[in-house]
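Internal ticket - ligand job 637, flavin mononucleotide:
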Amino acid sequence: MDECEIKLKSKNEIILLKLGGSLLTDKNKPFSLREDILENCLNQIIESNKSIVLIHGGGSFGHPIAKKYQISQGLNDSIKDQIIGLSKTHEVMNKFNSIIINKILDKGRSAISVQPSSIFVQDFNEIIFKSIDPIEKMLELGIIPVLYGDILLSWDSSFTILSGDQIILKLCEKIQKFKISKVIFGIEEDGIYIEDNGHKRLALKLKYNDLPNLKLAELDQKIDVTGGIKGKLEIIKEIIKFNVPVQIVNGIKNQNILKALNDQYLECTRIEPTSERKSINKLYNRKIEHIKISLEHNVQHVKNYFDEVNLIHHPLPEYELEDINLSVDFFKKKISAPICISAITGGHEISKVINNILANAASSEKIIMSVGSQRIGLEDPSTVDSFKIVRDIAPNIPIIGNLGIGQLCDLTFNIDNFKKCIEMINADVMAIHFNALHELVQSEGNISYKNFEERFKEIRKNLKIPIIAKEVGTGFNTDLALKLDLLGFDGFDVGGTGGTSFAAIESIRDADSFEAYTRKISDTFREWGVPTPVSIMNVRKVSKKLIIGTGGLKTGVDIAKAIVLGADIGGFAFKFLKSAWQDYKNNTQSNTIKEIKTLKQELRSSLWLMNVENISKLRNNKNKRILVGELYQWVNQ
Ligand SMILES: Cc1cc2nc3c(=O)[nH]c(=O)nc-3n(C[C@H](O)[C@H](O)[C@H](O)COP(=O)(O)O)c2cc1C
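stdout (structure tokens):
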């Protein structure tokens, strides 16, 4: 296969094609098309008969007006009629877009205009894409959605410019139903020119790792309001993270657009993700998808068995409310209340901000904080900061590190890797997460744990800090709990059903994973597992070690319920993910701190109303609980 060929892989593939504004218009003459070039490009699109999303730039239509009214700088009262200029910028781009749509229709293919200013808004520094559905539906019908550089309205009643390149990046992030086989940028040059020993040379093939050190030739070329080739490269770096190859081709020459669409040889710049980056990127994207899906969809288990745990009310409390003591020890460190921020995240820019917010709240409220799986920190050192920040922000609280049984059983994984994770955050405790169902229902999952015992014994022997066994929402049975206790685990995070369901998350992530079967395995197993209250009791039955009760806890009353069943600590993932996300959006820290304060108040009130003076008197106290309904049946089988 030739250097510039990129093979298409399945029927559900689409191509994102960006035709630059300077390619289609004469930049020196406002509102002037380069008719021949436009016609030629559109003919090639029609001839290819490919599934395409077309995006075009502003060129001499949008740019002069945007520049005149300084739209990219945002709202500025000193610019006369700037708001009129905003509408004019949008309107002129609409006209340009309409010309293109009509030409495509005249050539016999269906195309529909998609107004970016109606489906994108800016929320702080993030561009929010309201709904991808219309674009995916158009593609299903064989229609070419046509988008364009437009104005972008923002959260603070201001605005800026949304470039066609930014739109492409967002499409790469959001399109789920189709595989994007590549992104093609049609420009006026043959590709990217670089300096090579004092000579200017066309870069034919670039890899992700080449991009940061690229010495561009002709840096001053074609700077417009949305940035020149340098800006494009920044966007390309992000596109590559979605494992989408990029081709930059000369749209004027030699039927290049058609050749690129048909994967034929042409002289151009081709940028491909490296195979190593591909697997890291999968992990990188997966981590952030878990967060987004948890927040945007209902992925909670249908039934929460804490509803079937009743605490016994005591009408005449003997203690003063403020004298109720919530503080407990967690592996020799004192904490103000038995609350743990469960493992959520790490390994992404957004994770870093979320971990900062969580660590700050955990530190100021003196509770336990966990980080998400540190695997990505081992595979991509550039992500270590997103974990390390937790210890930097919270030097004194107990911090729990996190790795999975999958890594532990991987033969390339060794003690040094484990030690690196501990050092990364100066962890007080390491959690090994057991997530067999989650691994099973995801296409890239690791489901072979044959050598677990042997590997764990080796790690246990060589490490000084406590290691806990953590489930992630499917719970423990008694037999395994006993086995793990005897193997040398120092505690458990029981993570049962009732809260976040990873099968539900994967069902949304892998929208097409069921293609070969009649239904998705992730849907069938959505509710699979041992309920959290049962999981706590299963472990307490066979182990005297520490138990964190996680999975579906919502309030401080639920912490009391977890403790009365035998847990030492209550853990929350989804609750703190939501509060941290609110803080992230509002650029605050207070929502997460308030949430912890509320949990403490509810827990203290529960103890007072049961006439229990401290946590140890509540732990596994059968006189203070009544189990009803299905939960009673689970326990009394
Ligand atoms: C977005 C998200 C990411 C998570 N990532 C991890 C992880 O990396 N490692 C882990 O052990 N558990 C992880 N979990 C599982 C939680 O720590 C917790 O066990 C589970 O979500 C149940 O608690 P909840 O019902 O309060 O959400 C994650 C949970 C969520 C919601």
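Auto-summary: The first strand starts at residue 13 and ends at 19. Residues 290-291, 294, 342-345, 372-373, 402, 431, 433, 470, 472-473, 495, 499-500, 550-553, 572-575, 577 surround flavin mononucleotide (CB under 6 Å).
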